[in-house]
Hints:
The protein has 200 residues and is α+β, with helices and mostly antiparallel strands. It folds into two domains: 50-161, no CATH class; 162-199. It has helices spanning 2-45, 103-108, 122-138, 163-199, and strands at 50-65, 81-90, 96-100, 141-146, 155-156.
Amino acid sequence: MLGKKLVTAQKRGETRALCLGLGMVACSMMMYFFIGITIVPFYTKSVWTTETVCKVLKANIKDQVPCPDSEGSEHEDVSPYPCLQVWVNLTASGQEVMLYHTEDTLERNPKCSYVPGKSENSKEVKARIEKIVTNFKKYQTFPCYYDPGGTQTNVILSRLYPPKGLLFAFLWPTLMFTGGCLIIFLVKISQYVSVLSAWQ
Length: 200
């Protein structure tokens, strides 16, 4: 009687462990798919792939401009923000080019080097832009990214998805997939040993 209970409990445990392993594998596949349709296209589309050194030539705050959305149209309910324009000397070519914060900044507003988030209020935006100007005046030389193919003549300060960020994004689903496969493998080994013991 006790032996049957132990066997039943063992089978239940194996079934739960097997379901856990399959669930982990399924979740990791979904994460791979999500990363593949969101992060990977942005990474492959970016042409600013080579790092170089930029030297600030001038950082000016122009007239306030309305905040456009990703499509380029303007919202009437969004307050305008100061337009920061930063011009740098590109060490790789010696050209005077405009600096943008990220790839997304250029798409949202090519006239400004920095575009604030839509949730920020005007006081926060003004204080942040003034702080950015102060930092540029304090740190004249810094690393930046440019397009080695020459498609884009401007440069960006940081990439949205650098190679390290892409590897980090794939790290967690890889660990989950490996853990799920390991659990399934151990359950199958346990079942094989149990069948072998019963046969003997």
